[in-house]
Structure formats: structure tokens, C-alpha cells
Q: What sequence folds into this?
């Protein structure tokens, strides 16, 4: 069942949303060659708790980290570790979730580690544009298929693959609510979007085939062919006035593309 949020709920959700974006920004500031994903994880957990939030991912289904940190051919759900040392030229998707005042905010950004190849930049810029294109379709009366189609057309039009095995989702008092929000689809198909729905749109776009597999650690999702992946995410509410991004802090809903700023 899709839970419709009242205007007051949506206002309250901005508290968790702004904290999750601020945490993501904090993570991005620590991205540099030589940093470990465990360091970034610890800093983000401390930041969220300092602001009286709870890191939503920690312990979720047994997940050990407060962030997901997914590098290069890793798509999502990478486990932060002291043995993952970022290297110049890597791209790293960091996903942060914060629970505060009874609601969840969920967002992700793929950062550059130092300077990255033109090929990697193009993948990241296209994936970010896919997120923007998906959000633009999140208006009452459209369907979930309009969001998926907008993402898919832009990604495939640029020669990239769209991951099928993982999708966006409804967000509320828990992180994963109905509906599923695929990054592929047909216009005018799927659930009709209504005022008060809150969803996370999170395109996962790859350089090669969209087939994925999960590493033996049971969490980290990688592309089967080793092609690199990018991942961007915002949580937003569907309102009569259009999409309202809830994962927005005082600096806005986006992060700079590079890390270490
Ligand atoms: Mg999500």
C-alpha cells in the first residue's frame, strides 16, 4: 500500500532530508586519494548523531555501515572498510540516509576521487542528468513509467545501460516503502502519481551491460562485466506545485561533482 503524506508530514520530512543531504556533503568533503571508506563512514555517522539523527542504514537488514560506498564497478550497497583506500581516478557513489523526527531522508551522489577520466565524468554527468529528468516527471497525473522512461531514454540515448535489479522506492517513516520506482519503463504505464506520495528516485547507470551480481559479502552489488557504474539519488514529494526535493539543505539539493571540496 502506498502511504500518502499530509502537507504537515512532508514539512516534517524536510528535517531528515536536510540532515541526509548535509551528511552526504560532509562525505563528499572527505573524498580524496588515500581516504578510506571506513573513515568517511565514521565521519558521517558522527555527523548524523551530532545533529540528533540516526544513520538509517546502520543495522538495516544487518548492514554494518552508516553509508553505502560503492566504487567504480560497484553499483550500490558497498560496505565501508578500512581496506578500501580511494585512488586517484576512482568514482565513488556514497549513499547516506538519516532518520530524524520520525521520518527518513535518503540520498546518494557519485563523487570524483581527484581527477577522473573523461569517460567516467561523462557517465556521472549523464546519470546526474537522468536523476534530474526523472524528477521532472514526478508530477501529479503522470505515471511511474514516465519517470522510468525519462531516465531510460536519456541513459540509453547516450549509450549506457540501466540497472534493472535495483530500483528507487517510496520513503516515509521507514526507508523502503511502496511503490518501487524503476529507472526504466513505458510512458503512461504503472502507478499513477498522486499529491502526497514521497519517493526516492535513484538511477544506477552503467557503461556496459546492466547485469549485476552480489559479492560474497552478501551486500556489494557489482556489474557482471566490470563496467563502471554511477548512482545519484534524491527523496522528493509529489505536490500540486510539482516535485519538491526533501533531501535539500541550505546549499540546495545537489552536491558539487568532485569530491574533496
Ligand atoms: Mg534509496
A:
Amino acid at each position: 500500500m502506498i502511504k500518502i503524506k499530509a502537507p504537515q508530514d512532508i514539512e516534517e520530512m524536510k528535517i531528515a532530508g536536510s540532515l541526509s543531504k548535509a551528511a552526504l556533503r560532509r562525505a563528499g568533503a572527505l573524498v580524496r586519494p588515500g581516504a578510506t571508506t571506513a573513515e568517511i563512514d565514521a565521519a558521517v555517522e558522527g555527523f548524523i548523531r551530532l545533529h540528533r539523527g540516526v544513520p538509517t542504514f546502520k543495522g538495516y537488514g544487518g548492514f554494518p555501515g552508516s553509508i553505502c560506498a560503492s566504487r567504480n564497478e560497484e553499483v550500490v550497497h558497498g560496505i565501508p572498510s578500512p581496506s578500501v583506500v580511494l585512488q586517484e581516478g576512482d568514482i565513488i557513489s556514497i549513499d547516506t540516509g538519516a532518520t530524524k523526527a520520525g521520518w527518513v531522508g535518503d540520498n546518494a551522489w557519485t563523487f570524483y576521487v581527484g581527477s577522473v577520466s573523461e569517460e567516467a565524468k561523462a557517465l556521472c554527468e549523464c546519470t546526474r542528468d537522468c536523476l534530474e529528468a526523472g524528477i521532472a516527471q514526478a508530477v501529479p497525473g503522470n505515471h511511474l513509467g514516465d519517470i522510468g522512461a525519462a531516465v531510460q531514454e536519456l541513459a540509453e540515448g547516450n549509450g549506457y545501460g540501466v540497472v534493472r535489479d535495483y530500483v528507487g522506492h517510496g520513503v516515509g517513516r521507514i526507508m523502503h516503502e511502496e511503490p518501487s520506482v524503476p529507472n526504466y519503463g513505458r510512458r503512461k504505464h504503472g502507478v499513477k502519481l498522486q499529491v502526497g506520495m514521497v519517493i526516492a528516485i535513484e538511477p544506477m547507470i552503467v557503461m556496459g551491460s546492466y547485469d549485476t551480481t552480489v559479492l560474497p559479502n552478501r551486500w556489494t552489488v557489482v556489474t557482471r562485466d566490470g563496467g563502471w557504474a554511477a548512482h545519484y539519488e534524491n527523496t522528493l514529494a509529489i505536490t500540486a506545485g510539482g516535485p519538491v526535493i526533501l533531501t535539500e539543505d541550505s546549499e540546495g539539493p545537489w552536491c558539487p561533482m568532485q569530491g574533496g571540496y
Q: What stands out?
A: Helices lie at 7-30, 37-50, 118-136, 144-157. Residues 106, 169, 200, 202, 233 surround magnesium ion (CB under 6 Å). The first strand starts at residue 54 and ends at 55. Residues 24 and 96 are 6 Å apart (CA to CA).
